[in-house]
Amino acid sequence: MNNDFVKRKICIVTSTRADWGLLSSVARELRAYETVELQIIATNMHLDPRYGMTVEEIIEDGFRVDERVEMNSRSSSAVDTAVATGKCLGGMAKALNRLSPDILVILGDRYEMLAVATAATIMRIPIAHIAGGEISEGAFDDNIRHALTKLSTLHFTATDAYRNRVISMGENPDHVFNTGALGVYNIIHEPVIPKADLEKFIGIDINASTLLVTLHPATMDPVPVEERCEALLNALDGFIASHIIFTYPNNDPEGEVIIRKINEYASRYPGRVAVVPSLGRRRYLSTLHFVSAVVGNSSSGIVEVPTMRIPTVDIGIRQQGRIAATSVIHCEGEADQIHQAISFALSPAGKRLALETDNPYAKRDTVSRIVDKLATIRLDELSSKRFMDPYPILNVPTFKNDTDLKDL
Question: Which domains are delineated in the chain?
Answer without folding.
Answer: 8-180+363-382 (3.40.50.2000), 189-356 (3.40.50.2000)
